[in-house]
Amino acid sequence: MDDGSRGNWLALREDDGRAYLLRRAPGEVKIKGLGRFDAEELLEGYSLGDRIKVGQKSLTIVNPSLPEARRNMARRAQVIGAKDSGFLISWMGIGIGSRVLEGGHGSGGLAMHLANVMGSKGTLISVEARTEHAEVGRMNMERLSEVLPEFPKWHLIEGDMGKIGSLVMEKCEELDAAIIDIAEPWGVIPEVEPLLRAGGRLACYCPTTAQLERCWEAAQKSGMIVEWAGEMIERRWVKASKGGVRPGNTPIGHTAFLLISAKVATHEEE
Ligand SMILES: C[S@@+](CC[C@H](N)C(=O)[O-])C[C@H]1O[C@@H](n2cnc3c(N)ncnc32)[C@H](O)[C@@H]1O
C-alpha cells in the first residue's frame, strides 16, 4: 500500500472522530477498542482514504495528526486541552522557531499542542517534578514525534521548575515564551522571568481565582506587564432532531483562568 503515511503511523477513524493509531508493521498488535490483529495483514490492499471494517467498526484510514495523537495519548495528570492551548499559542506568538519553556509537563497535553506548531527549528523545554508523570509525558511526546512531519528540539528536565534557570540556559540563550501549569505558579515566576527575552511572554494556568490573583501580583512584582487575564468559555452547538441548530446539552465546564504577561525594559531611575 503506497500510503505516504508518516513513520508508518496511520489512524483508523470512526465517523464520530474517535481514532485508533497503529503502525503498519508485521506482527500481532493489540489496539484498545479494536482488538488484536496483524496491522500489515489487515491493511493489505487498502490505501489512505479507504473505508475498512475491523470487527463491527467501519473506519476511514487517515494520516494521523495532532487530534488523532491526542485521542490516543496516555493520561496521568489533568491535561490542558485545545481550547486553552490554542489561545495561549496565538496570544503568546508561539510558532515556527520559537523557544518555549513549559511545566509541569504532566502527561504532555500542552506540550503536544506546542510541538505541533513549532517546527523543527523550535526548541521546547519541558519540566516535570514527578518521574511517573514524566514517563507518561515522554511516551506521548515520542510517539507524536513519529507522527508529525516536523518536531522541535525537545528537552525534558526532571526537576523542580523553581530551580531550572541554569539548565534552561544550557539549552537555549533566552526564551520567547514560558507557560507555567503547576499548583503554585507564582512561586516560580521570579526564577522564570529572567530567562525571557525582552518582549517575551509568560503565562500561568490557574484553576482558581486565588491562584490567578497571586500570579497577577507576582508577575507585576517581577516587573512584567499583565497583557491578558481571564477565562476561555467554549459552547458547542448541535443539530436539532426537528431541524435547526442550537447549543448542546454539554455543560460549560470551567478549566482554568489564564494570565499572560510580557517582559518589558525596567524604568530608568528618575
Ligand atoms: C496539571 S499537571 C500538568 C499538565 C500538563 N500541563 C498538560 O497539559 O498535560 C501539573 C504537573 O506539574 C507537576 N509539578 C508540580 N509542581 C512542580 C514543580 N515545582 N516543578 C515541576 N513540575 C511540577 C506535577 O507533578 C504535575 O505533573
Task: Give descriptors for this structure.
270 residues, Vcp-like ATPase, Chain A, domain 2, Rossmann fold, seven-stranded mixed β-sheet, binds S-adenosylmethionine
Textual characterization of the structure:
The chain folds into 2 domains: 9-64, Roll (Vcp-like ATPase, Chain A, domain 2); 71-263, Rossmann fold (3-Layer(aba) Sandwich), CATH 3.40.50.150. A hairpin with a 5-residue loop joins strand 13 (237-239) and strand 14. The protein is of the alpha/beta class. It has helices at 39-43, 66-71, 82-91, 109-118, 131-147, 165-171, 189-192, 209-221, and strands spanning 9-13, 19-23, 28-31, 35-38, 51-54, 57-62, 99-103, 123-128, 153-158, 175-180, 196-206, 224-231, 237-239, 245-247, 257-263. It is globular, with a radius of gyration of 21 Å. Helix 4 (109-118) runs parallel beside helix 5. Strands 9-8-7-10-11-15-12 form a 7-stranded mixed sheet, sandwiched between helices. A 4-stranded antiparallel sheet has the order 2-1-6-5. Strands 3-4 form a two-stranded antiparallel ribbon. The structure holds S-adenosylmethionine. The site of S-adenosylmethionine (SAM) has 22 residues, from helix 4 and strand 8. S-adenosylmethionine is lined by residues 77-80, 103-104, 106-110, 127-130, 133, 160-162, 181-183.
